[in-house]
Amino acid sequence: MKNADGLRRVPRHPRLILGLLLLSQVAVAMVWWRHGWQWGLALMVATHLAVVWATLYPRASWLVPALSRLPTAAREVWLTIDDGPSADTLAMLDLLDRHQARATFFVVGERALAQPRLIEAILQRGHDIGNHSRHHRDKLFWCLGPRALEREIGGNQQLLQQLSGRAPVWFRSVVGMTNPFVGLPLARHGLTRVAWSARGFDGVDCQPQQVIERITGAIAPGAIVLLHEGARHGHNPQILQGVLQYLQREGYRTCLPKA
């Protein structure tokens, strides 16, 4: 597996992207003025729909770059676990140890601050941590502005560095939603946005076997697997166990991109 430098997708020109989006609306105004409201309205709707799609579709990368799978033909996958630390963390660490597997835990700052020993346990047992925002504002993250996003992303980056002694290099958007302003704090803090190629919707109420089948059906060399911990349904360790058993049975190994 190549090191993190070869996988990094840190936004290079986030202000340029924002400027181009602004220019697109200037173009809409010119079309409206020159050709009438019908053409102007149609163009305005089209440009806004494009931005909404790129914000809401987790693997969209034309506004903010994203890593959605690993560039390898080897039978290896990257396990990523969101929303911790939680009451499930230790049980999931035990499962990973049992299967000699490694994962990146995308952690929420306020939860890490409340349970710093779990962050220590994650790192001591050979895993990695990533930035998953300070407060996990799942209903509002998609529409936050630059200052609020800096507090959520940059604030969590500083907190996790204080707790762990290392600055994360990976970021995952809350609920996968990424508006054009997210690129600003990612560029400022040297973060790469990580999406996924295999998911089972285990963060909401679910049937564990159905979730396992959805995830394993999308497993392929280089897959980035999205899992969760701490969901109210309580099935996350069971789902992780099922995924790990499948990987072992099919001859896959887990990997951590080297930071």
Automatic annotation (TrEMBL):
Q: Which Gene3D superfamilies match?
A: Glycoside hydrolase/deacetylase
Q: Which PROSITE patterns match?
A: NODB (PS51677)
Q: Which residues cross the membrane?
A: 16-33, 39-57
GO MF terms held by the record: hydrolase activity, acting on carbon-nitrogen (but not peptide) bonds
Q: Which GO terms describe its biological process?
A: carbohydrate metabolic process
Q: Which InterPro entries match?
A: Glyco_hydro/deAcase_b/a-brl, NODB_dom, Polysacc_deacetylase_ArnD
Query: Boundaries of each NodB homology domain copy?
Result: 75-255
* Keyword set, alphabetical order: Membrane, Transmembrane, Transmembrane helix
Q: Supply the PANTHER family for this chain.
A: 4-DEOXY-4-FORMAMIDO-L-ARABINOSE-PHOSPHOUNDECAPRENOL DEFORMYLASE ARND-RELATED, GLYCOSYL TRANSFERASE-RELATED
The name under which this protein is listed is Acetyl xylan esterase
Species assigned in the record: Pseudoxanthomonas dokdonensis
